[in-house]
User: What shape does this take?
Amino acid sequence: MKYVSTRGDAPVLGFNDVLLAGLARDGGLYVPESWPQLSIETIQGFAKMPYADVAFEVMWPFVREDLDEVSFREMLKQAYDSFDHHAVAPLVQLDHNDWLVELFHGPTLAFKDVAMQILSRLMDNALAKENRRATIVGATSGDTGGAAIEAFRGRDAIDIFILHPHGRVSDVQRKQMTTPTESNVFNIAIEGTFDDCQALVKGLFNDLDFRDEIKLAGVNSINWARILAQVVYYFTASAALGVTMDRKMAFSVPTGNFGDIFAGFVAHKMGLPIERLVIATNVNDILARTLHEGTYQPQGVVATASPSMDIQVSSNFERLLFELSGRDAGRVKQLMADFADKGSFSLSATELEPMRAFFSAYKIDEQATEQTIRNLYKSNGYVADPHSAVGIGAAIRLRVDRKIADDVPLLTLATAHPAKFPDAVKKAIGQDPGIPEKIRHQQDMEERFVVLANDLGKLSDYVRTHSRAV
Ligand SMILES: *Cc1c(COP(=O)(O)O)cnc(C)c1O
Assistant: This one.
């Protein structure tokens, strides 16, 4: 499989190069040249297989030229053995035809672990092959950072720098990032928002000399390998619920950077019978507004109880744009240039129509999020975190609006463990969710991070000084 940039001006690359490149050199995102197809019989067969084996079948067509089968299977086995639930992404039934897919059984209790655990192994493998080092710089709105540091700490060939918005992540999230003691881990608190952090990282990637000097690699969901790893649970969950061509699934996905939901779109492109995908946002609703109004225009970021979705510039939306435009890189380039010039762009009717036919979007505000946590606790005794609650709230709205037939199974992705957001949970149900054993030790450990201004020069100086790849 070869990969092309959504903006058409970057070299066509194989999987390992895309893995290490992150952002394409023309500022675009890498996407596969074509979508491999899985037959419905193959998909149904996934119901009987362990998660790591399904992951192999789904991912192999995208990586086969760059990996050998035995070592890829071993990487997947190790990655998913780090989860403390055998199913990796188990289902929980909420109502007669409504389900949760719990994605938070990994080492940092965040769905980001699903991708990060395999990403770190893939990168290590690719670097070892070329006998070189890399520097990872990533931005986090909370969960990516912890999951990335957990996956990359202590790896020989990689230094990892994680930027988080100062004072805007939860205590549990911050401690997950700042307590590891390995010398290849660097935490930077930026005086700004997540969007500022993400813009800084993009700024580093767009400085091509710096990028080459420090062998910059990315772990944000601009990295194709992350999206790819997230395609897998759409298949396992659908297979478990008996998907057929006449029994299609719908998914509600709590969305920030459009990575997780784009993975669902990819699953659909590969042949998974999906009836509808629901974009579930908190009040940072750029994606819902884009769907309803046709114009992509960020507003100021508002801090919410679901901080991992406090995002207004939704990077992976560019990958969807590429598809909606009929894979027209010129069109994507033009829209992104509009965005850089005017701070917004508008979709054409031919782009909006297919988007509206396949996606729905709901904004779940803070009050509705809290109410959803409370109602679900009362009705089912289930404690949801605020991100998952945004997804559940959107799923309920979809049913009320009758956007899908009653007999279509509706699966909401549960993206974080409630213990990571104790304040919001306590406010909703009057009880503290408690800190699970596997992260409790971090609570009293010493924290290590530096605070930097929102300034690209200061950041690149810091990274250059500390990276061992220079
Ligand atoms: C990252 C994250 C999301 C959003 O995922 P995207 O791929 O950015 O849309 C949702 N919930 C949690 C808990 C997250 O960490």
Notes: Residues 110-112, 143, 221, 254-260, 308-309, 387, 415-416 surround pyridoxal-5'-phosphate (CB under 6 Å).
